[in-house]
Amino acid sequence: MSHETRHAVKELRSTYRLIKRSMDLMLGTILLLLSLPVVLVAALAIRLETKGNPFFLQKRMGLGGRPFTIVKLRGMYIDSKVRFAHLYDYKRHENLNFHFHAKEDPRITRVGAFVRRTSIDELPNFLNVVLGQMTLVGPRPEVPEMLELYGEYKAPYLSIKPGVTCISKISGRDRLLKQESIEMDLGYLDNMSAQCDLSILWRTFRGVLLRQDVYDGKLTLDTGTQAKHGTQLGSITSFAPEQTQVRS
């Protein structure tokens, strides 16, 4: 199947859709401007340590399967795809029972480990949010090659706009197996609301400050207490494909 195949899109209530986009524009713009000095300093540190563009541009799959270019700070060596080609062979995984981020990753630089541990590497994502390619809360955008492993999860995963953070980010993050992460984030589809989004954003902010459950590739997992579900999030840890209503 072509990576460019279009998938059905989940129908959102008009009021919620307006609120969500307004939050993306206002908060996204504010966070982008506030984080700009940090991003520039981090980019300089990355460039001083290793050669190459300090920003990482990669094709990801967005709403309905539309591709877009995500912007991040580079945490790996610029030639890592050549030096460690086997780590990019996602077909080596027979199923989704693996950790996407390894505790120890030879591709990660020293500065890269720091920007990952602090989540600074994802701050440029706010540009994608302002441009409308991403939203503040939604499943993380996936690379086309990894989506081939999703099976029945693929269509619903692409039915909503990808986000900067979602349930898996506040409920185990890098400790989760890939399948656990996907199922948690797909549970969000049946619980989407402004209240849920604000709760996830707050818990993400707290988790980032405490550096919870992050594998930075240098065996320095921060051992803060795993974020617990609130009452309104406690039941959205599983997903049934037939429950999601989508439109073509």
| Number of helical segments with 4 or more residues | 8
Which of globular, elongated, flat, extended, rod-shaped describes the shape?
A: globular
| Main sheet: strand order | 1-6
The total count of strands amounts to: 6
Task: Provide the structure class.
Answer: alpha+beta
Question: Helix amount, in percent?
Answer: 25-40%
Span of the ends, CA to CA: 18 Å
Mean pLDDT: 86
Radius of gyration, Cα only, in angstroms? 17 Å
User: How would you spell out the order of helices and strands?
Assistant: EHEEHHHEHHEHHE
Number of structural domains: 1
* Beta-strand content estimate: 5-15%
Low-confidence stretches: 222-248
Described by strand count, sense and barrel closure, the largest sheet is:
2 strands, antiparallel
Could you characterize the architecture of this molecule?
The protein is an alpha+beta fold. The chain has one domain. 36% of the residues lie in helices and 10% in strands. The chain is built from eight helices and six strands. The strands form three sheets. It has a two-stranded antiparallel sheet with strand order 1-6. The protein has a two-stranded antiparallel ribbon with strand order 2-3. Helix 1 runs antiparallel to helix 3. The C terminus is likely disordered.
Could you give the topology of this structure?
Elements: E1 9-10, H1 14-49, E2 55-61, E3 67-73, H2 80-83, H3 110-117, H4 125-130, E4 135-137, H5 144-147, H6 154-157, E5 163-165, H7 178-187, H8 194-210, E6 246-247
Parallel strand pairs: 4-5
Antiparallel strand pairs: 1-6, 2-3
